[in-house]
């Protein structure tokens, strides 16, 4: 019997939040310009960042869209613009608490929402404390950005946080963010179309070549957004470099990159059955699960379409991608 369809990659934006400068200090914070009952604009300082609609904050709208798409459960994560990793840690702690509490307010009345929190990742001890607080209050896991400034996921402090996630059984959803800009990347949404896949690719390599997967427990549950970025397509290139230029490529890894593909999962936001087949071929049908990037326009609608339309999947594989793999990631195995 097929299980509930789970979308592991969705975001929310509360309808409103306190004045962050007054509550946290500093300037240039995100704020929400409400244009109507169903439309708003995320502002960063005086710059328009992203238009959003009621689906970003209204549970009823989200549930109606889930019903239309045949989704039973959404994992609801922060929108990365609120991470605040570039702020002093005390400010980031306050921001995380504000948005984590607002997330529980929005999702707390429905068993169909699984809230994930954010943490001040620039301060690993504070991040562990905020994660523990959130788990106790009702969050089920944590979303983190793929880097903190120039510190990637093999940074000692971030590894400490990942170890803590493994110890307390918190699943970790890794989302690219803070992509470099410039004249070649600031047109055509190129930072999102090329920068995001590259950011995720780089951070998967950091976990492998930085020796993180050789250090952290295998119980750590990680999922990377957007199909793991460009990593699955270029795994062969990474293996070739590890073997032929091991003097500079191997880093602290004990094995070639392909050895570690069973240590993390990816979502299915790749839009094309051929791309989905590559994910399944490279990572295995136990390591891919439905994600949509709802409610943003670069996401997939109807949710799960690429999985449902993929003719190469058998019924058992399709159920894994739609349901079973996500339930295992969330610690709710059937």
Automatic annotation (TrEMBL):
Membrane-traversing stretches: none
Amidohydrolase-related domain ranges (all copies): 6-332
Key words of the record: Decarboxylase, Hydrolase, Lyase, Metal-binding, Zinc
Pathway: Secondary metabolite metabolism; quinolate metabolism
Acyltransferase as UniProt keyword: no
Database matches in InterPro entries: ACMSD (IPR032465), Amidohydro-rel (IPR006680), Metal_Hydrolase (IPR032466)
A GO cellular component entry from the record: cytosol
Annotated EC: 4.1.1.45
GO molecular function, one term: hydrolase activity
SUPFAM superfamilies (alphabetical): Metallo-dependent hydrolases (SSF51556)
Any one Pfam family match given in the protein's UniProt record, by short name: Amidohydro_2
Uppermost EC category: lyase
Residue runs in coiled coils: none
Superkingdom, natural source: Bacteria
Family membership noted in the UniProt record: Belongs to the metallo-dependent hydrolases superfamily. ACMSD family.
Quaternary state and interactors: Monomer.
Protein name according to UniProt: 2-amino-3-carboxymuconate-6-semialdehyde decarboxylase
Organism: Herbidospora galbida
Lineage, broadest ranks: Bacteria, Bacillati, Actinomycetota, Actinomycetes, Streptosporangiales
């Amino acid at each position: 019997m097929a299980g509930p369809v789970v979308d592991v990659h969705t975001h929310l934006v509360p309808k409103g939040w306190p004045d962050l400068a007054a509550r946290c200090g500093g300037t240039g914070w995100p704020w929400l310009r409400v244009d109507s009952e169903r439309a708003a604009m995320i502002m960063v300082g005086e710059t328009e960042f992203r238009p959003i609609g009621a689906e970003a904050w209204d549970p009823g709208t989200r549930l109606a869209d889930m019903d239309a798409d045949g989704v039973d459960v959404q994992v609801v994560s922060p929108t990365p613009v609120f991470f605040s990793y570039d702020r002093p840690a005390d400010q980031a702690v306050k921001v995380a608490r504000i948005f984590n509490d607002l997330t529980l307010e929005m999702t707390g009345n429905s068993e169909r929402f699984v809230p994930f929190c954010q943490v001040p990742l620039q301060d690993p001890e504070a991040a562990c404390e905020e994660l523990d607080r959130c788990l106790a209050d009702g969050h089920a896991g944590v979303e983190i950005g793929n880097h903190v400034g120039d510190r990637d996921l093999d940074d000692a402090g971030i590894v400490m946080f990942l170890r803590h996630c493994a110890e307390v059984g918190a699943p970790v959803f890794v989302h690219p963010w803070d992509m470099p800009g410039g004249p070649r990347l600031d047109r055509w949404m190129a930072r999102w179309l090329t920068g995001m896949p590259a950011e995720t690719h780089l951070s998967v390599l950091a976990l492998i070549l930085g020796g993180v997967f050789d250090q952290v427990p295998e119980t750590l549950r990680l999922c990377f957004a957007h199909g793991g970025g460009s990593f699955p397509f270029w795994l062969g290139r990474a293996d070739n470099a590890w073997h032929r230029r091991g003097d500079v490529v191997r880093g602290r890894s004990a094995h070639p990159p392909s050895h570690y593909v069973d240590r993390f999962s990816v979502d299915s936001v790749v839009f094309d059955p051929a791309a989905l087949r590559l994910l399944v071929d490279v990572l295995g049908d136990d390591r891919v699960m439905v994600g949509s990037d709802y409610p943003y326009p670069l996401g997939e609608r109807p949710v799960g379409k690429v999985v449902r339309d993929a003719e190469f999947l058998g019924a058992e594989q399709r159920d894994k991608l739609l349901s079973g793999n996500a339930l295992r990631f969330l610690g709710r195995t059937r």
